[in-house]
Design brief:
Layout lengths: L12 H14 L5 E8 L2 E8 L2 E6 L6 H10 L4 E3 L5 H12 L16 H10 L8 E2 H7 L6 H9 L12 E2 L12 H14 L2
Parallel strand pairs: 1-4, 5-6
Antiparallel strand pairs: 1-2, 2-3
Helix pairs in contact: 4-6, 5-6
Length: 197
Amino acid sequence: MADLPGALPAPPLDALRARLAERAAAAGLLDVAYRSLDTALGTLLVAATPAGLVSVTFDGAHPGQTLDRLAAELSPRVLEAPARLDDAARRLERLIAGRARAFDGPLDLSLARGFGREVVERLREIPYGETRSYAEVAAAVGSPRAVRAVGTACRRNPLPIAIPCHRVVRSDGSLGQYAGGTEAKRLLLGVEAARRG
C-alpha cells in the first residue's frame, strides 16, 4: 500500500502507542501505565497509577506475569505508556547511580497489604548507606519473632529500589535474598556505601 501514489507512511509504532495512551488517559480509561527501563541492574518493568509509582519488578524483558498481577490486583485497564513514567524512570535511574538518596516522587502502596505494608513503611526509615537485619526490622514493626515474615515482605516489596528493601541483610551481615538477585543488591549497597559521606 505504501507504493501507491499519495499513500501516507504508517506512523511509527511508538508514536501510535503514545497517542493511544494519551487518549485513554484523557478519557479516564488508563488506570495503570507501564514501561520497561534498562538499568545497570537489568531491565526493570515500572508501573504507575494516577496516585504514583506502584510497581517496580526485575522482569522488564518478560513482563507477562507482572502485567497479569497488575490487571488482577489493581485494574484490567493497563497500558504501555512510557511517557507517563519518564519522571519516575529518571528518579529510579538517579537512585541506582547514586545521584539521589531517596525516591522523592509519589508512591502508590496499593500492592503492599497487611503485615507486608507495615514492613514496607519501616523500610523507608532505614538511612541511606546503612543496613538493618531482618530481626531488627521485625522488632521495629513490633513483631520480633516475625523474622521470616519480614524476609517474605521484603521479597514481595512492590517497589524495590524506590523503597529500599536492599538495605535489609541477615544478622551475620551476609546479604540474604533480593528480588533482583544478590548482584543487584550488592551493587545498590556498594553505590550507597561509596556515596554515604
